[in-house]
Write a structure and sequence with these properties.
Blueprint lengths: L2 H6 L10 E2 L7 E5 L5 H12 L6 H11 L3 E5 L5 E9 L5 E9 L8 H15 L4 E6 L4 H9 L3 E2 L6 E2 L9 E7 L26
Parallel strand pairs: 5-6
Antiparallel strand pairs: 1-2, 2-3, 3-4, 4-5, 6-9, 7-9, 8-9
Amino acid sequence: MTAEPLERSLDRHDLLPGTTEGPDGPPLDLRTARESDLPELRRLDEEVFQEFAYPGFLLRQLFDMYEEHFLVLDDGAGRLRGYVLAATRALGTDSWILGLGVTPDRRRHGLGTELMTEVLTRLRRDGIDVVRLTVEPANLAAIFLYRSLGFRPEEPDGGLRQDYFGPGMHRQIMRLDLPGQGLSDNSRRRPVRTACPPTPGDG
């Protein structure tokens, strides 16, 4: 879901396109979330993020708003093992990563990187130019992962925002500029979802 929890789910950088298989379980199918996934998504979110989990009603609304950029890892046995969620604006070319999580039994196998890579591919395809996320400044592992994907601190002040989510909850904002596909502005497929500010936490 968001920053603190998101950082618990970091893993290695090896990318396995499409379906991926880890040593700790069956192959996983990376696909777009479905409405029927919502109960399992809520369970997954609570397992991964615990006290930081999205309330059920908000998870439902986020799905309704950003379905095409809400991706899951499905083990084929009725369980979801990870997800990533990106929010886009109806009239703009920027996006925020609002959630990234992988279940404890499937971490350290490149799944977080795979989820991020796929959602960034889709955002680029949909005409998004800039992607942002927040991260706890002391979480060097998370920062290293995002840097490996091309994210950099958004100035000023090295991206540091004091009390970003409240007193003592400092965050670093990181930004990725997505390369265009050589299309004119009028020929790009624009996102059609409603704008939504980043939720408390890191995504």
